[in-house]
Amino acid sequence: MAEQLPADRPTLEAVAARAGVSRATASRVVNGGDGVRSHLVDKVRTAVRDLGYVPNHAARTLVTRRTGAVAVIIAEPEIRIFSDPFFSRQIRGISKELTAHDMQLVLLLVEDRGDYDRIERYLAGGHVDGALAFSLHTDDPLPAITRRIGMPTVYGGRPGWTGAAAGSAGPSEHGPVAYVDADNRGGAREAVRHLLSLGRRQIAHIAGPLDQTSATDRLDGYRDVLLDADPALIAEGDFTAAGGARAMAELLERCPGLDAVFAANDLMATGALGVLRERGRSVPGDVALVGFDDAELVAESTDPPLTTVRQDIEGMGRLMARLLLRTLDKAHGAGRPGGRGVPASVITPTSLVRRGSA
User: Fold this and answer.
1) Edge-to-edge strand order for the sheet containing 307-311?
2) What's the pTM value of the predicted model, to 2 decimals?
3) β-strand partners of 182
4) pLDDT, tens digit (0-9, with 9 covering 90-100), for 93-125
5) Are 267 and 239 spatial neighbours (Cβ–Cβ below 8 Å)?
6) Is the distance from CB of 240 to CB of 83 less than 8 angstroms?
7) How many angstroms separate the CA atoms of 139 and 161, rounded?
């Protein structure tokens, strides 16, 4: 079927004629197909460049059965996404990898539970080839949605429903699942051991929301080191600065003699720092403080600069996109668009970055 294009817009037939090849050969090169000799590929690409040819997206989709787009789904309200540098860094990594493969990023946000109906309709409508999803909570309906419609998906963070042990990339009892996560538990252990090495003994923990595996894994790492930790030294936050401040105030009321705090992310650590200052506690003199993430814009701007556990957030975003693209390429190459082959999951290492707060 010939492309329906404006008369002044170069056609695929014009590209083929200029390159001296058949239309089928030109189409195969333009759509990324294999089996064309290299010198012919060069001729077609030169013709495309010289003519300023832009493929017709609808026609290309019919040929390749791929849209060239990936949905990025973040299970958080807009106010959190645009106030927490974690999300911008992960999206940056995803975007870089997709751009390098000439793929488009479609951002889908979850403001409330009603948004999942809209997201399911969009994914089922064939607008994207696959999905990348992160910041899921344990009761999130998204995994069931993607399984139901057969959407290839890679998750950021170990999904709570996988049944895999914390810190491992084991199989799911609900079927195979691909995800990229940091060694949250190991990083938490390193943070607490560092505080112990400074001579601190009343070490509190500000946990993230415990319906997310990153928070529970970091809490487990804290407990791995402090086997007999007083439950009063643990307070749950919500990964925001305000939540960190509330948890810090609660901890000081319960345990005024605490001399160290490990916060499950950098934003909560900044909230805790503000409360400690208001209460006349010096950092690190009276209370040593460690965060998690190493979001430079946060960790390096506090006074004192924040000691924190670094995870490669942007690199994790790139890995997520890479795993998904590999799945899509294999499915396409096998003639099974939307196939459900699942690549191995990845756990990335963490490291402690020492600054002035501990």
Assistant:
1) 234-236, 203-207, 260-263, 288-293, 307-311, 350-353
2) 0.77
3) 348
4) 999 999 998 899 999 988 888 889 999 999 998
5) yes
6) yes
7) 8
163 CB neighbour count, 10 Å cutoff: 12
> Can you state the percent helix, strand and coil of the chain, rounding each to 5?
45, 15, 40
CB 246, CB 274: distance < 8 Å = no
HSE-CB of 20 using CA atoms within 13 angstroms: 5
- Report the distance separating Cα 207 and Cα 238, nearest Å: 8
**Helix or strand (DSSP H, E) at 39:** helix 38-51
Beta-strand runs (E) in the chain = 69-74, 104-109, 130-134, 153-156, 178-182, 203-207, 234-236, 260-263, 288-293, 307-311, 346-348, 350-353
In one-letter notation, the amino acid at residue 233 is: L
Q: Which of 9, 133, 160, 17 is nearest to 76 (CA)?
A: 133
Hey, which residues does 236 pair with through a beta bridge?
207
Element (H, E) at 224: helix 213-225
Report d(CA 11, CA 9) in Å as an integer: 6
DSSP string, 119-160: HHHHHHTT--SEEEEES--TT-SHHHHHHHHT--EEEES--T
The per-residue pLDDT for range 290-327, each reduced to its tens digit, is 999 998 788 888 999 999 999 999 999 999 999 999 98
Give dist(CA 13, CA 59) in Å, integer. Answer: 13
Say whether pLDDT at 180 is over 70: yes
Are 158 and 181 a contacting pair, CB within 8 Å?
yes
6 falls in which pLDDT band (50, 70, 90)?
Answer: very low
Task: Determine the longest span between alpha carbons in the chain, in angstroms.
Answer: 82
